[in-house]
Sequence to fold (434 residues):
Amino acid sequence: MRIDVVGGGLAGCEAAYQLLKRGADVVMCELRGAGSTPCHKTDNLAELVCSNSLKSEAEDTASGLLKAELDLLDCMLLKCARESRVPAGGALAVDRELFSKKVEDTLRSFGNFRLERKEITSLDFSYPTIIASGPLTSDALAKAIAEKLGAEYLGFYDAVAPIVDADSVDMNSAFFASRYDKGDPTDYLNCPLDKEEYEAFVRELVNAKVATLHEFDKREIFEACMPVEVMAKRGEDTLRYGPMRPVGIRDREGKRPYAVVQLRKENEQATMYNLVGFQTNLTFGEQKRVFGMIPALKNAEFLRYGVMHRNTFIKAPEILTPGFLLKEDGNIAFAGQMTGVEGYVESIASGLIAALNIYAKASGQEEILFPATTICGQLQRHISAKSDDYQPMNANFGLLPPTGEKIRDKKMRKVAYYKRGEQDMMRYLNDRTI
Fold:
């Protein structure tokens, strides 16, 4: 059985390994070596472009749970990461060159692996294929994808607002209300500020440190996706006439706040809320500090920080199954950030899941869907669940259903999520052969 993999990044390399160990002949097509991208520095497989950290392994983190699940699934890239790790506290950080070398050496150790350095410009494949070409997919391949799927199913985003854990919002300050009482009042959680709080917030916001954009990110995005800190610099009251406008909103006492930040439900369970209109290019540390000046968010736990960068992604819920397979053609799968997963380890997970499912499809087996209590399972559900405003998502506990236990200590509550997810993955794998 031959299965092709387009892209030699994290998702593509993990997908290739999972297929190789199951006996498939794998041909990997990688642009770098025949061409280049605006962000990669080498032709190495699995090159880490930005940070060299794969985040925490701790039991009270969603990233830790995802790693535990992937360990149970024999994830090759995590093994390579641990063999090339460098000191980074509780995070799994790596020596980039050593990590890439170990990944490539592992793949080349298989006699059924072939690497071809070339650009793919069409989706007319002779063999089952996983497309894992990354957020900086070449223009030619992006065009081919758009032609295959329909241009309306290919998206781009320049700015994403932060998401906070619902349980971390101070409900003594926040209140539910919709503007002008339209719609369901529980759709929006409002975080009011008085005049003094608002002015202090704006002062810190305009002077906060922003993240440095890569050259390939520097495009005309500000008018369409204006960062909140840029808006604030246009005048002290700009935000009060923009995303923090209080008109049509009344608090519990029937009064209109001086300014208000609206939080909108990110999922049906209302465990996550995004900050409406708060696209930002502040550094993650500054987002936590400055947005923490909003009284209701003083102890907020950020499940995802705001980001501004180029990312090509498919509108997965319309076209992909939970197994990352194309609904109209199960011989094609997608993996990596292109599918709407955000982060290194999440991309690795998507490659692993796509490989398992395209192999299952080619072998006449049923699609694999991991338990809803696991991060892997929820990432599968995220990329395939109907959504009116689909956006990339990273691993976080807000994706998971409640444990049903009343655990007051926040850390121990997260550990309970971790243990349940790990145990449920173990039970799932004991019940079937993958």
Notes: Residues 2-157+311-431 form a domain with the FAD/NAD(P)-binding domain fold (CATH 3.50.50.60).
